[in-house]
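Batch manifest, entry 17 of 40.
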Amino acid sequence: MTTETTTPRHTALYEEHERLGASFTDFGGWMMPLKYSSELAEHHAVRNSAGLFDLSHMGEVWITGPEAGKFLDYALVGKLSSVAEGRAKYSLICNADGGIIDDLIIYRRPANQDGDRYLVVPNAGNAPTVAAELAARAKGFDVTVEDATANTSLVAVQGPKSVEILLQLVPAAQHATVREMKYYSADEVDFTVAGAPLKLLLARTGYTGEDGFEIYVPNANAGSLWNALLEAGQSADLLPAGLACRDSLRLEAGMPLYGNELSLQASPFDAGLGGVVSLKKDSDFVGRAALEAQKEKGSARKLVGLKGAGRRAGRSHYPVLKDGRTIGEVTSGQPSPTLGYPIALAYVDAEYAEPGTRVEVDLRGKPEPFDVVELPFYRREL
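Output type: structure tokens
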């Protein structure tokens, strides 16, 4: 009996990461930098100055056509047809049972001669599934579905000095565009990279709890853009940052990760994402009946934040206890580098989800006290 193995894919920036001495890990079928030197240093750089991330493992799927908005209203749980050009929206793609296939960011771009245009960005390991599911759901709609993942790189600059760094690569005439870009929006911006002009899609969304930008760039230009940003960021104490600190940053910000907090077994209402589901839109959408029933019934379990009263951290799959009885399970957890105490996300029975509830996490046979708290754990000063 043989077991089929798949070699992890490399992003267009793999050799750049090697030159920087990165440690790698297989994430979502991609060989990605876990850290370069110190994950703690990279975490603090994002909180205090800036970090540079390769996010090219994320997917990019273009939806184009006269019925693009109508189609996405059917394919996803949100009302994407109402998103203004230049803005973005967080949404979910669910199956007919209401299970979460993936969480997504969708950017509405200006229409062209082919009709309305949307860029759908799924998570790394789910990108092929999402692209195939969108293509299947597109039957009967006047749209085209194009999976551009293989040709597109994604670089992110995250942290309070992100604007300062980007302005060094953008002409003065577009400085105001960068500075004034709203959260969850995107625009075409001219960059000067390796002495040559390059028009790229710049977005301001983020997954770290800090201000930050994402730049969508053709693979052929990814290396030169990466190195230009590293050079521009030297005076701002920018560090290249890997997935280890990305995970600690998103956990502090209370942001869910697919495969941990989100899955086919998790309802959007369980995960605290009921507001993403637009049951008021007139049109039908995949999973609507199941989600309506779930909302009516209420969640038996809920995703909560846990703050440790001691020093030891809970980890994924550790049981959550109340009076010695298992009431839930940790989905993500570690010591918070910014806050200085253990934090975790966990699903618990709904009756114990109220902030202020004292519970325990079974840390390999030793119960440790944790308190249910409001999310996020960390919120940046504006």
